[in-house]
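Entry 14. Ran structure prediction on the chain below.
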Amino acid sequence: MRRPTAIRTDAPPAASPEAELAGLVTTRANLQARRDALKVEVEQAIAARRALLIEGGGAAAISDAERACREAEGTAFGVDDALAEVERRIAATEERIREQRAASERETSATALERDGAAIDAAAEQVRQAVATLASATTALASAISPRAAPLFAKRDMHGVRNGEPPERIAAFLVGHMIATAMPLIEVAEAGRQERFGWVSRREIEPKDGNVPERPLLTDPMRDLAARVRGGEASPVLSAYHQPEPDFEPGREEIAVYVTSEFSYVRKTGYVAEVVSVTLASLPVPVAEQAIKRGVASRDEPDNWSALLRQAELRSRQHRNIFEYPPLGFNLEEWRAAETKRRRDAWLAEQGREAA
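Output, structure tokens:
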């Protein structure tokens, strides 16, 4: 007994808008080619009918020509109508693709904000745990400052009135000083208290609800922005902080080297070359390194240094042109520019940025 053939009820997967657009563009090209061919056919049918009417052809022939014209024109009309519909569908599909891409961009930005918010919450929780540990350590420090030790923290050691202060306040100041030293960006202030000339106001670092920091104050604005980006109320292009660029220009340090053979180098493009004689010379570091590399200078005193100096003294009595000094082939200005660019490019690569 034959089993009945199973009927599939699942629909084929829908094509992506991009694939649908590609199909519509192909269809449009085909219809445009068909329209151009029909235009020729219509013109030929009209010309044949015109000739029969002018030349007085038979009724049957004229009737056939009329029918051929109507068929060609009808077919051309149908192609024009289909082409207009395809153009409409192409425009609608392109608009749908733009909307989907915009929605995807918004979702990406919103997800990034939410991910950053979750990471900040986790990191902030670690900081809060560390602060709780610090609070316990501060209590232990206050306990360690005995009544005998408290008077030793004199006024000259810490700002403000310190004589006669309890260990708890001394411990709080010491811990605050440690925090301010280790983390200069945190503004640390003591709790409000009465001084000689009035009250010292307390500066709160983080808004508090009783003794519990309100975590939503940190990341709720970020989550709100994520919701507005996802809803299209805010731009998905998020601003980012970029560390200011440091000074990449190399230093102008010089070192002393023993010049064993005279040479010249260019300090600044377009200027007369600098000439260097056989002597213990103080040269810019890159010039000295290049001279050592070329074998015309040494960091250590050569064994024949005295002989080299005598030969140099004899040559110095001759009138010589500066262009007679062998060029080192080194332009200090160009080297500094290239080294500055290299350092900047390396720094930008570390920052994940590109040179402007």
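Residues 4-9, 154-162, 203-217 have pLDDT under 50 and may be disordered. Will compare against last week's run tomorrow.
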